[in-house]
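User: Can you model how acetyl coenzyme *A sits in this protein?
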Amino acid sequence: MTGLAGIIAGDTAISTVGKESAGLTYRGYNITYLVDHANFESVAYLLLYNKLPAPEELNLYQKKLMSLRRLPEKLLILLKAIPQTANPMDVLRTGVSMLGILEPETPESIDKLVAILPVILLTWYQGQEVTNAQITTADYFLYGLNELRVKPSDPLFSKALDASLILYAEHEFNASTFAARITASTLSDVYSCITTAIGTLRGPLHGGANEEAMKLIQQFDEPDQVEAGIKRMLSEKKLIMGFGHRVYINGDPRSPIVKDLARQLSEKVGKQKLFAIAEIIENTMWTEKKIYPNLDFYSALVYHCIGIPTSFFTPLFVVSRITGWLAHVIEQRSNNKLIRPLANYIGPEPRQI
Ligand code: ACO
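Assistant: Here's the modeled complex, given as structure tokens:
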């Protein structure tokens, strides 16, 4: 079976993906319920501590994450030395690796990793440590993108970014999570598990698709060019990024939620034309291939309307998915067995020189 498609590779109690009756759930809660009733930090708590926090628990957890948004001096020096031309995914991977050298794993490392990724990213971007006192990850990120911002960001921006962080947080045995579990299964340290996962997420068939989806939408100047353009790409056997999914056959349940946010944001910031272009891409993919958009497609438009640079789209996926990766590392360690499958040998018969 190529790509292990359809193979059940282990047990998990963290999420269900594509199960007919349940849809996408984190620890039994449907993602639509979580987007409506929780924020990203409470979802992180749910994934890592196996319960939705009570208000006081959430308050304490958010304060803890805020207190952990501190960079060791040598990591700050390293981030300032990384050129602005670097790929931000490489910055995150290197930042996590350096943190593992400076602060070898302790029980605190789990929360520290959740808190520190946006700090690594924004500090490199701004060339100085970003120390704003925003409570939520979404607001910390939005303020940190523009250190000189004095006004609170638009509540719709915060809501949309927070919702997208919830939706990206966890997705069972996707490639990066499975990679993290393989590393965990060798009893390696948590930083090695996370650098493995970041490297795996970077590719355009996985996390990198949201950036490619934005480039695709921006290829078109006018909505009336879109249908013919997509048909041409399909006839050239090109992949349309942000479409298709290994597990979801009847559509990605996260997509309608981000599509609605993309519609609201595009109206708010006057980018209705981009939304119209995206919808025609969606309709053409349905007519031509019967393939649905995945989470990455309309998330790209959400981030673009908020003003986030395209090269930060996949890093934002990391800022969120770190919670799922860590939950899986904890789960793997709790009942560990080395993950080491077999290969089907297709090389030459034994031979002599
Ligand atoms: N554009 C055009 N054709 C597609 C697409 C697409 N996005 N997705 C699938 N197809 C076609 C394939 O070409 C193939 O056609 P064929 O049978 O004529 O050869 C058929 O649909 C089946 O596709 P597979 O590649 O076999 O499906 P697989 O399960 O291996 O791939 C994947 C899933 C990698 C997500 C694929 O749909 C894809 O490459 N999509 C684009 C990248 C993308 O959006 N990735 C994000 C994944 S979700 C996430 O990370 C949040």
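A couple of observations from the model: The two ends are 33 Å apart (CA to CA). The beta strands are 15-19, 23-26, 29-30.
User: Helpful, thanks.
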